[in-house]
Design goal:
This protein has about 190 residues and is α+β, with helices and mostly antiparallel strands. About 35% of the residues lie in helices and about 25% in strands. A hairpin with a 6-residue loop joins strand 2 (about 55-60) and strand 3. Bound molecules: coenzyme A. Its EC number is 2.3.1.-.
Length: about 190
């Protein structure tokens, strides 16, 4: 089966709500429980990612569902302008372990390398017991940066650690240098004229 990624748009909101509800039924993955997956949560994520980040989805071949999604976005204040945060990825339980998560991440990171020289850092947090996700992120080039002790109340056992991870864009270009270069170029051309 061949799958392709595309950028999400606001008309995807119902399909994304259904996808997140299916994924949240499996305990130990995303932080939110099924009752916390609301239309407001989905729309807010979509708007922030479309306006100030990236949201990619994979459609079900020969169907009308969305079967996988990844999103991340910039957080205020402006000192964080070089960072895409709040990264979440979900793959429909029926389609997991078939390479869709890898396809989404590779598309996202390639897009950032090729088109987003303003982004230096992509960051995410995974609960320590989500070994599958952490192993997966490490293979993609994310590095563990520490641990937030007892951050997750998993409601069944004790509190568990949340693991912050980051990936760096080798093509990042400091934006003030870009602006300065553009300014000096225009000063230069002014002088020549
Ligand atoms: C985590 C998730 C996004 C991965 O997507 P996926 O499509 O299943 O992943 P892929 O098929 O592309 O496999 C990616 C990697 O997962 C890892 N993996 C798969 N099964 C694993 C397992 N049982 N244990 C440990 N790692 C495992 C491997 O590193 C694999 O790489 P490989 O192909 O080199 O072996 C998906 O399982 C998911 O949506 N889980 C529920 C939601 C969730 O946990 N989101 C992340 C919150 S931080």
């Amino acid at each position: 089966m061949s799958y392709t990624t595309r950028f999400a748009n606001l008309t995807d909101k119902e399909n994304l709500l259904e996808l997140y509800k299916r994924v949240s039924k499996i305990i130990g993955g995303i932080a939110r429980t099924e009752s916390e997956i609301t239309e407001t949560y989905i729309i807010n994520n979509l708007k922030k990612s479309i306006n100030n980040g990236i949201c990619l989805v994979i459609d079900q071949p020969n169907g009308d569902k969305i079967i996988a999604e990844i999103h991340c976005y910039k957080l205020p204040p402006s000192v964080f302008d070089h960072i895409l945060s709040e990264l979440t990825i979900v793959v429909d339980p029926e389609y997991q372990n078939q390479g869709l998560g890898t396809l989404l991440f590779n598309s996202l990171l390639k897009h950032i390398e090729n088109n987003r020289t303003d982004i230096l850092r992509v960051e995410l947090i995974a609960r320590e017991s989500n070994v599958k996700a952490i192993t997966f992120y490490e293979k993609l080039g994310f590095k563990i940066e520490g641990r937030f002790e007892r951050r997750i109340d998993n409601k069944t056992e004790n509190f568990e650690a949340d693991i912050p991870m980051a990936w760096f864009n080798k093509n990042y270009t400091p934006q003030n240098i870009t602006a300065m270069t553009a300014d000096s170029l225009s000063a230069e051309s002014t002088r020549i004229c």
